Amino acid sequence: MMIDRLDLVNLLALHALVEERHVTRAAKRMGITQSSMSHRLASLRKTFGDPLFVRGGGILVPTPRAEAIAEPLATALRTLEQAVRGAGAFDPAHARFITALALPDPLMSFAHRFVDVLRRSAPHATVRLTSVPADLGAWLASTPGSIAIAPVDFGGPSVIVRPLGRLRFAVVGRRGHPALGARLTTARWIAYPHVVVRIGNGRPNPIEDAIARAGVARFVGFEAPSFLAGLLALRNGDLLMNAPTPIVDDVVGMLDLVVRDAPIPLPQVRLGLLFHERHKNDPAHRFARERIVAEIGPLFARPNRIARPTSVGRPRGPT
User: Fold this and answer.
1) Does residue 200 share a domain with residue 133?
2) Are residues 224 and 262 part of one domain?
């Protein structure tokens, strides 16, 4: 193909020659010597198999071949320049872009805040919400506009992590639960059936590992497909659940549940905003990242909401 033999600088030289109709002026326009421009013209003539220009009246007169090339070449060079320079300043009020947001299940009840903020400031944006996939690194690498809120070690190579805070697992149950009215001991904790969340992503359950290491046996009374389903199951009966704070705090408050410290050490999970490095300098992606961090960051700035039981009166719930 002829295009394989073309040089971009030679094409720029041809464009300059077409517009200037003079070797010296075209050379000056490109910032090269007249001799260099003459060499480029000779190379172009050889490539196209056509003289391209002939002299007439002190100027270069394009041949029909050069005239046929001139306008498509000018259009192509303008398109290339725009692609290299970019589309200009990012304007969220008019930009059309997609934000694909992967959230852990407990944050799904919080997702409307992200959507509201993005839609208010970027009305032409599309938000695609999904759960955190098993192969998060591959999803971030292949999905346009992808952002995830997930444990910081979920990303893998080429994934940039912006730390958000630590999740603490605490024990949650209904207000008035018999195990939660006094200091929660291990015996009280395991005396009641537990809710276990199985989200099906194939990753180890750190809570089950911690319980096994502590040598504690518990009875699983309900296996839930999500944290939200598990929390909803606590409103009645005597089920207990280990849930991550602070990201379940809003749901816990809405359901009037009580939160207590676990009687054994449970793991803390470092949560972060994760995205692939190829999106780092994309203005629309940066805009979405900053809005998401602005919404979720305050969750981790709240005071510790785990209630401590009092010696008299009804136990306090989350405040």
Assistant:
1) no
2) yes
The pTM score is 0.67
Are residue 120 and residue 154 in the same domain, yes or no?
yes
Residue 311 belongs to some domain of the structure:
no
Task: Establish if 91 belongs to a structural domain.
Answer: no
CA 213-214-217 angle, to 5 degrees, is 100
Determine the 3-state secondary structure of 204 from DSSP: coil
The helix (H) or strand (E) run that includes residue 248 is none
Which stretches of the chain are DSSP H helices?
8-20, 23-30, 34-48, 64-85, 111-121, 136-142, 186-190, 206-213, 227-232, 249-254, 283-301
Instruction: Tell me whether residue 239 is in a domain.
Output: yes
Distance CA 86, CA 100 (A): 22
Question: Residue 102 belongs to what domain range?
Answer: 98-164+270-301
Overall average pLDDT of the 218-236 stretch: 92
Per-residue pLDDT tens digits for 40-82: 999 999 989 999 999 988 899 999 999 999 999 988 888 887 7
Mean pLDDT over 165-173 rounds to 92
Residue-wise pLDDT tens digits, 282-305: 999 999 999 999 988 888 876 655
More confident residue, 6 or 187: 187
Specify whether 262 is located in the same domain as 172.
yes
Predicted pLDDT of residue 305: 53
Q: Are residues 240 and 287 in the same domain?
A: no
Q: How far apart are CA 288 and CA 98, in angstroms?
A: 9
Are the CB atoms for 164 and 149 separated by under 8 Å?
yes
CATH number at residue 141: 3.40.190.10
Phi-psi group of 176: left, alpha or beta (phi > 0 → left; psi -120 to 50 → alpha; rest → beta) = left
